[in-house]
What does this fold into?
Amino acid sequence: MKKLSIAILILAFMVSCSNKENGNTKNANNTANQTTAYVKPQNPQGPAVALNLTDFKIDNDFILYRGTPFTGKITFDTFYESGYFFVKNGKLEGESEINYKMSGFKRKDVFQNNIILSFSQIKNGITTEFIYEKNDTSYGKKVAEVHTSYEKNSYILNIANSTGKIEVNGKKADNITVLSNSVSGIVKENGSFYKIIYSYSEGQVTEEKYKLDSKADKSEVLVEKRLLEALYLKPAEKSTGFINEEGIEKLDRIMYQLGKPGTSTPTSRQPADPNATVVPNTAPQQNQSEINQNDDDLATLDRVYDEVMHKNNTAILNTFSKDKLGYIRNTLFAKKGYKFKNPKYSSYFSQKSWYNGIYDSDEILNPEEKRFVLIIKEREK
It folds into this structure.
């Protein structure tokens, strides 16, 4: 009887171990199929207030409204952009949205305690969302998952967990295969089989479509390739895989725009443009050709900046001489209020009515603007 009891205990122990092992295997499989999808922070409740330089201030990465940490929605509307930020206790929390007026593109970010969790861009009817690795509080962020959708097509590539999903015309693809930076599957359209490859590499999101003789046939003929999204990354970002992201710097940049002469909202951030001040009629007036010349410099910069940074069209730079590219590049510094040391540019921009050189340091550009300058410098060589 004693031996029988021991045998029963041993058997029970073995069954318990087996169940535990099966449970662990099931959990491992579930983990492998999880997406990096995060719990999106709720947008804080509070008043909606238009951004202005009288009431708002950024101090030590806190957004202050009349001296105290703000909670609510901050809206803004500048010559270039419009949108909003949600803030909780002085920190970016929840959604933010920026609408680029010249290109018509839209960007949405999700923040938590000033840390960006994801962002999506909407261009030409295509929405692409980049989700960053969890628990990453550094300035450099690593993409863990990419989602793209347009019309009835949708794609998911989970780089961190090597999982993926493809839907074309609302139908799920079969034979899903996931590699380190791509997911592929087979779909049937109009009686023919197609292999779809959705991939992300160095900021570019692409879709490739191959026609197959049959579902199992390895014969593939490329019939279409589309660039769905292209982020401009610096060489260091490409080699390391980390993207340098702005957080509260975005809001600071927009505040700077509000303070520039010629924008719709006058502020006291820097000395006002004397030509924009209401003065008696005895003040000298500019003729129309001078006004057009001043407008042309800024208009050219805005057009080139939009093409290069928002549309990834660097080919536009080939239409300018090296000397002209130098003027375009320095127009950005002039627009920011940089005080030129180079006599060539100092003399040129001092004749512009909108120019007001007040900053000795050239560290006045945000990360995106710095990338723009580097791109042009490469073409000036």
The longest helix spans residues 2-33. The chain is about 30% helix and 35% strand. The helical segments are 2-33, 235-240, 248-258, 288-310, 322-335, 343-349, 367-380. The longest strand covers residues 140-150.
